[in-house]
Amino acid sequence: MPGTAAVYYDGLVSRRQAVEISLHPEGLAIFTPDGRLATTWPYAAIRRIEGFAGEGLAITRTPEPGSAAEPRLEIADQRFAADLAARAPLTLTQGMAARRERRNVVLWAIAAAASLVGLAYIGLPAIAGRVAPLVPAGMEERLGAAMDPQIRQQFGGATPLKTCTNPEGVAALADLAGRYERAAGLHVPLRVVVLDHRMVNAFALPGGYVYVMNGLIQRARGPDEVAGVLGHEIGHVRYRHGLQSAIQSGGLGFLLGTVFGDFAGGTAVVLASRALIQSAFSRDAERQADAFGVDLMLKAGGNPEGLAGFFTSLGAGAPGALSWITSHPANAERERAILEMARGRARSAPALTPEQWTALRAICQKTE
Ligand SMILES: [Zn+2]
Fold this sequence. Notes:
The protein is of the alpha+beta class and 368 residues long. The protein folds into two domains: 4-87, Roll (PH-domain like), CATH 2.30.29.30; 110-365, no CATH class. It has helices at 78-87, 96-122, 124-131, 137-156, 167-184, 214-219, 223-238, 241-260, 267-278, 283-300, 305-313, 323-326, 331-342, 354-361; strands at residues 4-9, 17-24, 27-31, 37-41, 46-48, 57-61, 72-75, 191-195, 202-204, 209-213. The strands form two sheets. The protein has a seven-stranded antiparallel β-sheet, covered by helices on one side. α2 (96-122) crosses α8 (241-260) and α5 (167-184) packs across α7. The model is unreliable at 317-321 and 323-329 (pLDDT under 50). Bound molecules: zinc ion. Zinc ion binds at residues 232, 236, 281, 286, 289, 324.
């Protein structure tokens, strides 16, 4: 039985692992990239995960005795998924995550209904801040997945922006992003890609989708500047700023769309994507993201002075410079604040080795 590639989360840490899977008489076998058998899931233990936002099928297994982990496997290969479905019952998961999700959906529906009433009294921005924490992570991921093609199209026009895929560059980025993700403790999996565009920009969608434009990597003076921007964007993910912005700009359409679970192609998604590109987050949100980025660098690699230096080196007159730089006059103040946060605290390892930095700079030599 030929195998296929899949993505595995062990349910203990949020790290995404590339694995190979294949079907065997005794169950679904999961192999590490170096060909070692990691585990086998008996077919009877396999459950489908409800509401998976990506392509294909997401599954988990009933817990093994004495284990609290809820592992997760994402299978994009449709044919393999069909073969698996012929052998495994694939009933829906009744696990903790599913129960939590159902409870959150109920809470969220109540909050959304209350918001419609409250709207008339306190206005949308205030509501966005209050309801965003109640939105289930799975729902936020679905929104991000729906916004992803919108964003690529709005920047790319006739030819939507492509992802840069030169393997060494992808590996260098995955190493950095993986370290930051483990240190960040996010509610959603982190999905960082470089987009092939000369703009000096980076942004975070709801649901863990982070984009760095190639122009920013080419303009940066070293890996710390890129790492600092990445850490900052992960801060926006952590505090769900993209989700808040989407709730604000998508308005009632978005609120109703989330209740009924139908995002893709909706007007609200188009509006939310446009707003995320065109308007800046609030000053408080930017400060929060800066502080989070500094913390990540100190914990997981990089020098925060890189993030600070970014404001002076990249902010001035770069084509399509980050809106959060150009729209805030207080860059010098922000730079000082970052240096102040980092002062006297121990530095961790460099963000990237010189070889990784060279590889990252060449990441767009291949795209898809
Ligand atoms: Zn920002």
